[in-house]
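Progress note, project year one: complex with beta-D-glucopyranose.
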Amino acid sequence: MSTDVESIIARMTLEEKAALCTGASKWTTTPVERLGVPEMFVADGPHGVRREPDIHAVARGSLPATCFPTASCSASTWDVDLLRQMGEALAEECIALNVDVVLGPGVNMKRSPLCGRNFEYFSEDPYLAGEMAVSLIDGVQSKGVGTSLKHYAANNQEFERFSISAEVDERTLREIYLAAFEKAVKEAEPWTVMCSYNKVNGVLASEHGTLMTEILKEEWGYDGLVVSDWGAVRDRVASLKAGLDLEMPGPQHRRVKDVVEAVRAGEVAEATLDESARRILGIVFKARQTPKGGTFDAEAHHDLAHKVASEGMVLLKNDPLPQNGRLLPLKDRQRIAVIGRSAQEAYFQGGGSSHTNPTKVDVPFEELQSRTEGAELMYAEGYPADDAFRQDLLDEAVELAQAADVALLFVALPARKESEGYDRADLDLTGQQVALIQAVARAQPKAVVVVNSGAPVAMSDWIDAVPAILQGWMMGQAGGGALADILFGRANPCGKLAETFPLKLTDTPAYLNWPGGAGRVRYGEGLFIGYRYYDAKQMPVLFAFGHGLSYTAFAYSNPAVSAQTFRDVDGLTVKVDVTNTGELAGKEIVQVYVRDRESGLVRPEKELKGFAKVALEPGETKTVSIKLDFRAFAYYHPEYKQWITEDGDFEILIAASAADIRHRLAVTLESTLDLPCILNAESTMREWMADPRGSQAFGPYYAHVAAQIQRRFGGGDGEGGGIGLDAMDMLGDMPLVSVLMWQKDTLPTHPEDLVEQLLAQVHDETE
Ligand code: BGC
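Model obtained:
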């Protein structure tokens, strides 16, 4: 059997090539038996393998596979090694279940906490999401199994996801919505990239030539295949021309026919079809190199899922008690009232295509019981499965809490509230759950709340009433044991938030532009999502991005940078000593944010550009070293159409969270870029003076212009003045030609000719 892709393409008929570019079934690509081209099997993704046993069955149902914690939780580990291990385990399950490519990870940004699919996405920050994706992809692909980086791009809500147009400006797209894709593509080379359903600035992602061909394939050098999200293709010919290699699912005989006819009619070059066929064959044969079958170690993977959950759960609050000490970890030998259905029915995954059939599920209550040493556990349901109000359950819970030393409240969003296909309408727990927390906390001030949700919930109505809160996320099948370990202090919490927890929905960045209407959603907040928004608005939040407590404490000292002044291409290394000052071993996540003190275009107050997770024994100190590269200081300039750096002062912020900056270091950047001059006929006088070539060319006229302006507008009661303004300031923002028109009689050349000459001068110099 030949795997020489070029010779296979040369021998394929037009019909065979068109058929190859569309799936054969829900989960398989089209084989070409006579040429030895096998089918390729894909399955969801992203945090467990959803392998349907029968690819033609209408009914759903999948083979048992490990359900790892969903991305909100895995990202909160900030642990790239762990994500890599999770990727390896996913690949082992793919191999055992005969799957060539797992459909994940998802790196869409959490633009609003309401997005129904946020549990499947890593973060509100593109750097963190990108790092997590790179590790997961590396892990999967190191075992010879492929991934599908999804959903490309700007798929940040479920509302009208098949049709809505995300209206997003180019700079925001590059810096926020594409950046994690770019990092993952460049650093981890996912075998496939999945385009999203929605439109981006009016064009369907499945027909978006700029996104798929110009940016992904040409600019980022991507050489895998682009697959459609399931059912995202409307016009197969248009999508093929735009760079969509593989349409899924199949079969789609009509689409194949359309492509054949379009090639015959000369509407699509055969070379375009060949290129897609080449990309698909390349991956199909790559997948073939990994023999499939066998079994996977379900116990070991369950343990790994436990580890990820335990490292991703976030201790949000653990206030000192009036009687001294803190509530968590729980002490043994006390009576513990375990309240809440989710203690018995683990809430560990969300709805939709990522929903897996777990190999087993740890029940939190049972896991707590198995770890008690002398503690007595009692249980009350607290709330029903739906959002009904049940006073009897409330009363029972309060009674139990009163009789106990501590109340452990388990709350979770009702099943089906967090899912693919629709968004949440609010950030709220059910009314019954809120009433339950309030009533129990009144009866038993020693109350811990464990929240299971894939995204933030509002807590303002009860947060002050409880001393301790643990965010348990959608914790995967082994999360129950991980929760028990943390609650009893068998594990020290070490996760930090990969997204901001807002105080209330109306505070959130996209609130006024969510979820859109009339076919469009305007990304009006631009670059300012997540902490970038709260920073800029100086708004308080419930819990900041990067926040997470430990049972021990960490001190930061000896901050240092490798150079005070540095060139962008050389980057910078940031170092800091971290000491565990408490009595328990623990892990700290050190975050490095970069702040540009002054920039040509507005920038966020600070942006995450590096991090490290470090394990420390009590009393131990380690030096953490974090490298910052060119991109850490650059921003995307829509006029230069590239990432640029500017000379100037920056601050390096070494932080324990976005709201807990431990050290600030001043550095100076020297840009090595030789940027082209972008002055044009519309450029303002201020822009001419700010540009080195512009000020050189226009400079000789400037004094004259200023004197004329002074004469005409003066100040106070001067001739022509008296209209109460600063004329230089006003005229500075006018196109140069318009400024000159005011005084054309005083100039030797007509302003239009003069500006033309000046433009020729500045652009000639750049040639
Ligand atoms: C989802 C994808 C998923 C695909 C296959 C789509 O509806 O958006 O994330 O991989 O279905 O199940």
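The longest helix spans residues 692-713.
The radius of gyration is 29 Å.
No further modelling is planned for this target in the current period.
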